[in-house]
Write a structure and sequence with these properties.
There is one protein chain. This protein has 417 residues and is α/β, with parallel strands linked by helices. It has two domains: 249 residues, P-loop containing nucleotide triphosphate hydrolases (Rossmann fold), CATH 3.40.50.300; 148 residues, Rossmann fold, CATH 3.40.50. The chain is 37% helix and 24% strand. The strands form four sheets. It has a six-stranded mixed beta sheet with strand order 6-7-8-3-9-10, sandwiched between helices. The chain has a six-stranded parallel beta sheet with strand order 15-14-13-16-17-18, sandwiched between helices.
Length: 417
Amino acid sequence: MVVLKVHDIECAYGSVRVLNGVTFSIERGGFTGVIGPNGSGKSTVLRCISRVLKPVRGSVFLDEHNLYGLSALETARKMAVVPQETAVNFSFTVEEVVLMGRSPYLGRFQAEGKRDFEVAARAMELTNTGYLADRLITAISGGERQKVIIARALAQEPEIILLDEPTSHLDINHQIEIMNLLQRLNREGGLTVISVFHDLNLASQYCDDLILMQNGAIFALGKPGEVLTAGNIKNVYGADVLVKKHPVTGRPTVMPLARVQQKNKPQGRVHVVCGGGEGAVMLALLVNHGYDVTAGVINAGDVDWETARLLGIETAEEAPFCLISKNSHEENIRLIKSADACIMVSIPFGRGNLKNLEALSLACDWGKPVLVLEERDIGERDFTGGQAGQIYDELKKKGAVVLKDKHEILKRLKNII
């Protein structure tokens, strides 16, 4: 069921238009993140939804009612806001600050009653701030203050909570604590959460849906895996990134690919046998250390293939889920012949990529230096009934050097090239 609908809104600060034709819907009980570079309009979206900034065109509906047709009290009982800046300059106690969240339920000059104190105590319990009740808000840490402000918002007993970068300026421990709290309130309490994020990885790990903003408009909207692609991030942020699945959650993880501009000639040419995302870091390290890098054979669309494209690395490639063909095998051999050294990362082997091992065996026969990164035993990665393990052992007998760490590979390369 849709709880919030934003339809074709346009917002402006004076003569400067900052939102242009923004339309989206939020399902009840959802956890939605709004992301985008500075100046993209993401915080303005929240200001519009929270009635701080009225759109010059378009509509916002809350439970099918025009948001701007509701009273401030009606809105405050349904929706709470946690702003980006949470500084409180007056010496209120934490309990007093949380009780401020009960103001939508109190008449003018009406004192808080038993229920108000019970709701405030429950909000402090949920946010683990009860032990701070008698402390002054000005005498607690930034992370503690952020939780108190969230407790104040919860004391409103809202159906929706809006947060503008709730983890900004906090250390990683407080970031995780606050995000886990919001997730628990969302999953267990049915609270609808809409939050602006600066950190793409936090947004990815906690949100059900993401809205990616660019220049005051929605560039992409959908599940984290649909929105957080290398192409979208390049188009919106202008940054080259690698997007991989988190090993535990399976959600996308964004890693920037910093490329150092080399003023001198390349230190040498290195060919990397990789695939399945196992070579992405190695490829980036080699490029950043000034090597001319090639790679193969990699399946098109693979994470390593994507990384190679972003880094401008020449590759021997094969169609997805296909055995290495004669043509791609020959292209791989051509790249190996032109390299000063070869590296094989800790990839799994099946029938489909067995020819990569055969190509490296030829490199050893030609006297090419071959460095093998062994982060996992070959027995754990051999899905060929032992055939890959046999060729692997032959490589070592032919002189391939086995190393356990990527930085050991870099050190050894300096002595080889």
